[in-house]
Amino acid sequence: MLQPKVEYDYIIVGAGSAGCILAERLSASGEFTVLLLEAGKTDDHPWFKMPMGYGKLYYNPRYNWMYYTTPQNELEQRNLYVPRGKVRGGSGAINAMIYVRGAAQDFDDWASATGDAGWSYQSILPYFKRLETHWNPKSDWHGHSGKIHINSLRSGMHPVCENFLAACRELGYPENADFNGQQLEGFGVYDVNIDRGIRDSSSRAYLQPALKRSNLTVQTEVLVERIVFDENKRAIAVQVRHVNEPASYHARREIIISAGVVESPKLLELSGIGNGEHLQALGIQTVQHLPQVGERLQDHLCASYYYKTNVPTLNERFNSLFEQAKMGLQYLLFRTGPLALSVNQTGGFFKTDANLANPNIQLYFNPLSYTIPKDGKVAIKTDPYPGVLLAIAACRPSSRGSIHAISPDSHEKPAINPNYLSTEQDIQEALAGSRLMRRIVQTQALQNIITDETIPGQQLQTDAELLDFFRANCGSIYHLCGTCAMGKDATDSVVDSQLRVHGVQALRVVDASIFPNVTSGNINAPVMMVAERASDLMLQAN
Question: What is the count of structural domains for the chain?
Answer without folding.
Answer: 2
